[in-house]
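Support request, please re-run this one:
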Amino acid sequence: MSEFLPAAASVSEAWLLSLERTAETDGGRAVHVVSTVTEPGTEIASIRRVLDNALDAAGAQSVDTVAETIFPASLYPDPERDWSPELPTAECALLDAAAETLYEAYTGMLPLLRTVNANKSGTYFSRMISWPGKEAGGINQLAARIERLRGEQLAGRRTHNALDMDVAADALTDEEDLRGLQVYAAADRRIRSFPCLTHVDLTLYQGRLHATAVYRHQYLFHKAYGNLLGLSWLMQFLCQQTGHELGELVVHATLADTQGRARALKLARDARAASDLDEPVTVGVHR
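Re-run finished. Output below.
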């Protein structure tokens, strides 16, 4: 039944633990698998390499491709500084410009992205920056989150638990009420199609920004590692833009799926054997 996995420092170890535990079940599936990454964005190169090779051999999307559906790091011109209340105006402007460049670049690509059938309802990131995500000009919920988190800094508040990214707001018509990140509609009756990510929660505690993401179906071979990495990049971006310290990432897979138990068992063995030979943990992109 429920699987509360040991906390792992890296995305790589958290993914591998979830794959190993789920592959141990008879059907290669498990309910309520909860993974924790204590240092979001960090990776173990050897584990990542084993998975990348397996994905390439299967003709599947790469880890980076999946990660960029949640946070397109390749479009973000990292200003290499963190926001703070004391940061000079010119320095703040550099951070704001970097974020705006990201938003504009992605919405500019959105018409092309939506020609892919899987993206016809928008993408995760388009829903974050232009709700409801099908075209430019929607509500930029990520920018609103940054403004709110900066406000917490300015007010000297280091703990706050009302920063949820809501899952649905179909009944709301007032734009001011659309405070959260809606990733699927309450009327959505699809069982296994987009979106698998149903909720993201942000919690500020003692100056650290933590995140919890809920997936209704977590595909451990094709998607899970990239999902963990993309969520880590999103957290790093929010922390850089708001000056809060990076906290833990928790991912709750209400159904974790190995997508083939025999392949998963071999992949887990290969990744574990490789990790035993590779001690260094490489740090993620933004921090």
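The chain has eight helices and six strands. Confidence is low (pLDDT under 50) at residues 166-184.
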